[in-house]
Amino acid sequence: EALALAEKALAVNAYDPAANYRAGRIAAVKGDGMKALERLGLAAYSPEFRTAALCEMAKIELRLGDVAEALRLSKKASESCATSIEAFVLRTLALRICGKSEKAREEIAHGLAVWPLAHQLRCEAYFDGQIDKAEFREGIRGEFPHDRMRPPEERDENQKKCADHSHERILSHSVRGRVLDSATANVLNYSR
Asked: What is the tens place of the pLDDT at every residue in 52-89?
């Protein structure tokens, strides 16, 4: 139904950025990467959709295996909006996947200085060996002092279930043999 509405809007104005963005996202979820790239490319001409469209295009390119293009698109998205955490995480992920680990480390360090609560970056730092598991877990906090990731022996039954489920999701995703956190994996696998 959403695709039909987007196509109806595009029949009236083929260059409508909002309709192209939505049609591109729908095509990506359906697995039609080329149509998604075409629609999102048209949406990227609009300043209001540029960063979001470029990030979506970078995700598609990562899924298709074109890491160099994903890196280029994520850089363009960061240029479009310097405060986009999503673009920054995509760029860091693409750098790490294509083997530029020293540059990825620099990006992670810079990103954590700017966004200390960006858990995707903390997870990338953990997988890269910059921080250990205890330091990674200690950084996962809420806004209140008691909101933190507790060690298993301190958790009540509901917290244990949530932590086990999260841990399973974290360990179930990988790109080229590297484990990803669930947030980064969702970047690559459009969760519905």
From this structure: 999 999 999 999 989 999 999 999 999 999 888 999 99
* CA gap 21, 181 in Å, rounded: 27
User: Strand pairing partners for 178?
Assistant: 175
Question: What are residue 174's phi and psi, to 5 degrees?
Answer: -150, 155
Best CA proximity match to 87, nearest among 120, 109, 63, 47 = 120
> Is the whole model's pTM more than 0.90, yes or no?
no
Beta bridge partners of 175: 178
Q: What burial letters (b/e) apply to 35-57, b meaning 16+ CB within 10 Å?
A: ebbebbebbbebeebbbbbbbbb
- CA-nearest of 91, 98, 54, 99 to 108 is 91
Decide the pairing of beta strands 174-175 and 178-179.
antiparallel
